[in-house]
Amino acid sequence: MTPRVVFPNKVLPYLLVAPQLAITLIFFYWPAGQALYQSMLKEDPFGLKSKFVWFDNFAKVLSQPAYVNSIKVTVVFSVATAAVAMGVALLLAVMAEKVVRSKGFYRTLMIWPYAVAPAIAGMLFLFMFNPSIGSVAVLLRRLGLHWDPVLDGTDAMILLVVAASWKQISYNFLFFVAGLQAIPKSLIEAAAIDGAGETKRFWTIVFPLLAPTTFFLLVINTTYAFFDTFGIVHAVTGGGPGKATETLVYKVYNDGFVNLLLGSSAAQSVILMVIVIALTAIQFRYVERKVHYG
Q1: How far is the C-alpha of 167 from the C-alpha of 223, rounded, in Å?
Q2: Rounded (5°) CA angle 186-192-193
Q3: What integer is the mean pLDDT of 178-188?
Q4: What mean pLDDT value characterizes the chain?
Q5: Helix or strand or coil: residue 89?
Q6: 52: nearest Cα among 32, 38, 33, 31
Q7: Is residue 130 part of a domain?
Q8: Phi and psi dihedrals of 41, rounded to 5?
Q9: pLDDT surpasses 60 at 1
Q10: Helices marked H in the chain — which ranges?
Q11: What stretch or stretches form a coiled coil here (predicted)?
Q12: CB atoms within 10 A of CB 14
C-alpha cells in the first residue's frame, strides 16, 4: 500500500497553488466576467454612456445573417484545418520513424515551423500565393489552374486553411512521434510475422494505439482553429473577399475594434466561448468513449 503523503505545514499546499489560482482568476475568470457584463450593455463608441439591455445584444447578433455566415465559415475552416494539420502530421510522423540515419535532424526540421508567429506564417503564404508575384501562384497558372484568393472566396479559404494547417503541423507532429515511440515494437513485429502488410499493421495496431494522442490533438486543434488563427486570418485575407473567410474570432475583432460595436462584440465573444466549451464537452462526452487507454 502506497504511504499517504502529509504536509507538515497546513498553509504550504495553499501557497503552492496560489500563483496558479491568481493567474487563472486574473487572466481568465475576471476577463470572462467583464465580457459577460459588457455583453449586456449598450455603449457609445467612446464608452461615455451605457445602458443595461440584458440579452438584447445576443438576440440582435444571432439574428444577423452576417453572424450566421461567420458560423458557417468557422465550421468549414475549423474542420478543414484540423483534418489537414492532423492528417499531414501523422503521415510525416510515420515516415520520420522509418528514417534510419539523421532521424533527430529530420525531426528538428519538422518542429521548427511551430516557432514562427501566426502573423509571420500568414504573410509567408500571402506572398507565396499572391496572384501577381507569388511563386506558387505562378506555378499554378502555368499548370492551367485559375488562382485568385483576392477575388475568389473558395481560393481564399483554401489559402487560409493551408497557412493555418502549416503552422500547426509541427505541434501535431511532435505528439504523434511521441505516441509512435510509445507503441511496443513487439506488437508490430508479431503482426508482421503473421503476414500482416504495412498498411494493415498501421490501421489495426498503430492507429488504434494512437487514439489517446489523436483525441488530445483533436481538442487542441479545434481550440486552435477557433481562437489562435486570428493572426493568420488578419494577415492573409482580412476576412475577405466578401466575408468569405470572416471567422467568429475575426468578426469579434472587426465589430469591436474596427466598427466600435462594443456590446455586440462582447456578446459575440461570450457566444464564441460557449461554443468552444460545448464542443470540448461533446468531444469528451462522446468521442472519448471510443478512445482506449491501455
Answers
A1: 14
A2: 90
A3: 85
A4: 85
A5: helix
A6: 38
A7: yes
A8: -115, 150
A9: no
A10: 12-24, 30-38, 56-62, 65-97, 103-111, 118-128, 135-142, 153-181, 185-193, 198-201, 207-209, 211-223, 230-236, 248-253, 262-282
A11: none
A12: 11
In tens, the pLDDT along 122-146 reads 888 888 888 888 888 888 888 888 8
Range of the domain at 161: 59-293
C-alpha dihedral, 133 to 135 to 139 to 140, nearest 10° = -70
Q: Per the structure block, which three cell numbers stand in for 193?
A: 510475422
Q: Look at the chain and report how many structural domains it folds into.
A: 1
**CA 225 to chain centroid:** 3
Residue 43: inside a domain: no
What single DSSP character describes residue 225? I
Amino acid, single-letter form, for residue 210: L
Closest to 121 in 3D by CA, of 86, 151, 81, 91: 81
| Beta bridge pairs of residue 41 | 52
The better pLDDT of the pair 48, 243 is held by 243
Report the DSSP pairing between strands 41-43 and 50-52: antiparallel
CATH no. for residue 143? Answer: 1.10.3720.10
Is residue 95 pLDDT above 70, yes or no?
A: yes
The residue-averaged pLDDT of 261-277 equals 86
H or E element, residue 41: strand 41-43
- pLDDT > 70? residue 201: yes
Task: Decide which of 291 and 205 is more confident.
Answer: 205
Contacts 24+ apart (CB under 8 A), 18-22: none
Residue 91 lies inside a defined structural domain of this protein: yes
Q: Furthest-apart CA pair in the chain: how many Å? A: 76
- pLDDT higher than 70, residue 7: no
d(CA 21, CA 159): 40
Residue 294 reports pLDDT greater than 60 = no
Is-contact 80 161, C-beta < 8 A? yes
46, part of any domain: no
